[in-house]
Every structure is written in structure tokens, then in C-alpha cells.
Specification:
globular; mainly alpha
């Protein structure tokens, strides 16, 4: 498998993480470097490890994983996106209260899993083709981490300029990504 093809696959897989990164940073009151690092590190790590897990599972587990992966990704993204919309629509009375940081805890794990489930299928495919997984996994992880950083910065700038409507849009984007994943697999 050529490096150009690996890079193209990595870009394709990283688009969900890029969009989710933008939505996450749009929901933050203020963006800090450690939040960008957490998102980039976790999204990159999960994107790199999921193809490895898929590759190790091989073709024997492929039918079982393919049957449920899209439902898991959809449920996670719809749940978090819906929560983001509800929080944004609650208005100014909640603005002074405590806002949850989507770059911490279970939200971060849910986003990391939801954006990397399709990478599991890529690993299964590479295993079926007899391709070594190590270089593709590293490239996928690095590209995802870089695009996640860019997404966080773009989302933060848009949020600072347009505020709550961007938060609602971020939630809609998350739900839309979940629906797209579901539609691709049904």
C-alpha cells in the first residue's frame, strides 16, 4: 500500500474527528492548550489503535463488528450532540453556571470511540488484504491528531464570534455525522 493511499485513507478517517473537534471547542467558554492537547491526543490515539484492533481481530470477527459499529457511533454522537443543543438552548440562565468540558471524562471517551469506529473496519480490511498495519496506523493517528488541533482552533474562533448559534450548530453537526455513519451502513 503506497504512502499516498495511506494518507488519503487517513484524511478520510480524520474528517469526523475534525468536525467533532470544531463542535467541542465551540461549546467551551474559553479554549486552553491542554484542551486542544487532550482532544488531539485522544482522537489520534483512538484512530491509530482502532485499525490495529481491527487488524488483529482479522476477518473472523468482521461480520459481528460490522453489524453493530454504525449503531454505536450513531448513538454516541446523537446523545452528545443532543445534549449540546439542549445546553445551548437553555440560554443565559445557565451561562453563569458550571459548563461541562467535552475534553474531559466520559464525553472525551465517547467522542474518541464514536469518531474512530470506522477505523476498526479499515483495520479489518487491511488484515483481509494482508497489509501490515503499523505504518497505516501511525499515519492515521498523526493526521487525525493534527486535524483535531486545527478543528479545535477553528471552532473556538467561530464560537467567539457567533456564540450560542455555533454551539447549536455544533450539536447538529454531531447528530448529522451520526446519521451519515448510520446511512452509510444501512
Amino acid at each position: 500500500m503506497s504512502l499516498g493511499l495511506i494518507f488519503a485513507v487517513a484524511l478520510g478517517l480524520a474528517m469526523d474527528a475534525f468536525a467533532v473537534s470544531m463542535a467541542c471547542s465551540a461549546s467551551l467558554a474559553r479554549l486552553h492548550g491542554r484542551q486542544v492537547f487532550r482532544i488531539a491526543f485522544h482522537f489520534g490515539w483512538f484512530q491509530a489503535m482502532m485499525p490495529v484492533l481491527g487488524w488483529l481481530a482479522g476477518t473472523g470477527a468482521r461480520p459481528l463488528i460490522e453489524r453493530w459499529d454504525h449503531w454505536v457511533a450513531f448513538a454516541l454522537l446523537a446523545l452528545v450532540g443532543g445534549k449540546a443543543i439542549v445546553q445551548a438552548l437553555r440560554g443565559a440562565e445557565e451561562a453563569c453556571g458550571e459548563r461541562r468540558d467535552p475534553t474531559k471524562g466520559w464525553s472525551l471517551v465517547a467522542f474518541s470511540l464514536a469518531t474512530s469506529v470506522d477505523a476498526l473496519a479499515v483495520g479489518l480490511s487491511l488484515s483481509a488484504l494482508g497489509v501490515s498495519i503499523w505504518v497505516p496506523a501511525a499515519v492515521i493517528g498523526v493526521v487525525t491528531a493534527c486535524l483535531s488541533c486545527v478543528g479545535m482552533l477553528i471552532g473556538a474562533r467561530a464560537s467567539a464570534r457567533w456564540g450560542r448559534p455555533i454551539e447549536v450548530l455544533g450539536g447538529i453537526v454531531l447528530i448529522g455525522i451520526g446519521l451519515r455513519v448510520l446511512a452509510e451502513h444501512l
